[in-house]
Amino acid sequence: MQSGKSVFVLASAMLAALAAIPAMAQSAHDARAAHSHAAPAAEPAPAPARRWATDAPLRAGMRSIRQAVQALEHYEHGHMDAVQARNTAQRIDDAVKGMVAACKLKPEADAALHGLLATFIAGAQAVRESGHAPSAAIADMRTALARYPHLFDDAEWNTPAD
């Protein structure tokens, strides 16, 4: 169970990551202006009775995140240096920004997605700021990836990542 402070920290990290790259900031702002983004819930969003539909940007973004998180296993085993890990964390940030910029989900689906995205943003930040592999943050990202197919209908999700 996350405390209110944890939700605030995750939400703050998400907003900070979106504002960190000026080229994407305007796109993210336009996407937020197009519809209301709900803050991540204190508890993981319950799985809907029927999983929410996905679109190409969501599917591509989630696959990119999955590939990056899988690559971080090498960091955990000492087979990736800190520079490579930071570059991998940047891939996660880029995927999140792309999904936020293209987001056209219904409010409930949007809130569930943003709960997952906050975990990825916090995990990528932990990778960048840590002098070693932050196993707990990477494990949290794996958990969020495992949660995704329970929330969203992505027929090809179980196929191996490229």
What does this molecule look like?
Keywords: Signal. The chain has 162 residues and is mainly α. The protein has one domain. 69% of the residues lie in helices and 2% in strands. Helix 3 (56-76) packs antiparallel against helix 4 (82-102), helix 3 runs antiparallel to helix 6 (135-151) and helix 4 (82-102) runs antiparallel to helix 5 (107-129).
Radius of gyration based on Cα positions:
15 Å
What does the main sheet amount to?
2 strands, parallel
The 3D shape can be described as: elongated
The figure for the number of domains is 1
Kindly name the structural category: mainly alpha
Helix content: 55-70%
Poorly predicted runs: 1-42
Succession of helices and strands? HHEHHHHE
Averaged pLDDT: 78
Enumerate how many helices there are, as a single number: 6
Write the layout of secondary structure elements.
Blueprint: H1 4-20, H2 22-34, E1 52-53, H3 56-76, H4 82-102, H5 107-129, H6 135-151, E2 152-153
Helix pairs in contact: 1-5, 2-4, 3-4, 3-6, 4-5, 5-6
Summarize the structure.
This protein is mostly helical and 162 residues long.
List key phrases describing it.
162 residues; mainly alpha; two-stranded parallel ribbon; 6 helices; 2 strands; 2% strand; disordered N terminus; signal; DnrO protein
